[in-house]
Amino acid sequence: MQGFNVANITKWLLANIDNVVAPFSVELIAGGRSNLTFLVTDDAGRKLVLRRPPLGHVLATAHDMAREYRIIAAVGKTTVPVPPALGLCTDLEVNDAPFYVMGYVDGVVLDSAERAAALPRELRVPASEHLVHVLADLHAVDIDAIGLGDLARREGYVERQLKRWSTQWENSKTRELPALDEVALRLRDRVPVQHGVSIVHGDFRFGNCLVDTTRGQVAAVLDWELCTLGDPLADLGYLGVYWSDGDETSSLRANDPTPAGGFLTYAEVVEMYGKLTGRDVSAVAYYVAFSCWRLAVISEGVYARYMHGAMGDQGLDLAPMKAGTEGLAERALAAVRSLS
Fold first, then answer.
1. What is the pLDDT of residues 234-255, one digit of tens each?
2. Where does a domain end: 58, 81, 103?
3. Rg (CA), the chain
């Protein structure tokens, strides 16, 4: 299997993870479009999850496995639900790239309107509310107490992000998209004052959570690759990129369950977050526009990696991915032009 040296990883697992039994079966978990994620099942039926960077060339600042492992291990000390961090390997002789192993958490990733069918309609509002509670809890974490105070600079989050993703765009773009350049200029002219510092997940949404569909609860938050310190409202705005108020004909992103209906509206999400945290959420529209722009840049990077074979041969049609970047760019432009 591409990206997974079975013999070497088997030896590493037996030496570093308690109570595992060889041999192991391995499968690539569908849906991962950045780091490669594998489900590993031992001979006794115990399930583990292994994460590693994409194959081939990656951008210098991306796919830091040690950093991502450090984050989930630290957040695991809090009430925020994350998979158990079990082990990190930085020896490139084992698998040609660093990787880490975490515990398997049972749950459903609600990453489409179709997947929403797994969640009973009467549990969709409770699941929405719990998602907001988890986000509020994440933003209330004492970053120094859990050892993440030096994870990144604390101030100037939006300015840092605008600089970072503008550079990433130049390094990964496969074509010119003038809309993205205009959005970046307009965003730089309107940066809100940052109120407070928190852990910022960077990709917080139902599609990056495992949901216990019997209780309408978030069982684990996944994909901490983009996590940093900074402005908590960025995560709230990012939810707005995905969230639909229940009209399937106006679905904002295909990989979100809310177009199926029965969930909170985005306005209710924002209001609830404001009440839970006491934060001023009046500037959330800026963060939605910013998040559309940033996601367009990220999407282009993913598209470029698939084009160049860095994600292995998964037989995907890349045309929708390319169009998705363009759609996000236009949405970002419309959003930023609408700001007063």
1. 999 999 999 998 765 555 677 8
2. 103
3. 20
> Is there a single domain that holds both residue 59 and residue 146?
no
Per-residue tokens: 257: 């369950």
Residue 77 in domain: yes
Q: What is the reported pLDDT for 305? A: 79
Longest alpha-carbon distance in the chain: 61
**Residue given tokens 């994600």 in the structure block:** 311
The tokens for 288 are 């939605």
Please indicate, yes or no, whether residues 86 and 127 belong to a single structural domain of this protein.
no
**Which carries the bigger pLDDT value, residue 35 or residue 7?**
7
pLDDT higher than 50, residue 32: no
CA distance 235 to 226: 11
What's the CATH code of the domain at 143?
Answer: 3.90.1200.10
Q: What is the pLDDT of residue 238?
A: 96
Residue tagged 């045309």 (tokens): 319
Enclosing H/E stretch for 211: strand 209-212
**154, 85: one domain:** no
Structural domain ending residue among the three candidates 103, 135, 166: 103
Q: How many domains does the chain have?
A: 2
* Host domain of residue 41: 6-103
Alpha-carbon distance of 293 to 285, in angstroms, equals 13
Domain assignment present for residue 109? The answer is: no
- Let me know how long the chain is: 340
Q: What is the pLDDT of residues 109-162, one digit of tens each?
A: 999 999 999 999 999 999 999 999 999 999 999 999 999 999 999 999 999 999
Give the full edge-to-edge strand order of the sheet including 47-52. 25-28, 36-41, 47-52, 99-103, 85-89
Task: State the DSSP H helix or E strand holding residue 49, giving kind and residue range, or none if neither.
Answer: strand 47-52
Residue range 275-303, pLDDT digits in tens: 999 999 999 999 999 999 999 998 998 88
Between the two ends of the chain, the Cα-to-Cα distance in Å is 52
Mean pLDDT of 219-229: 95
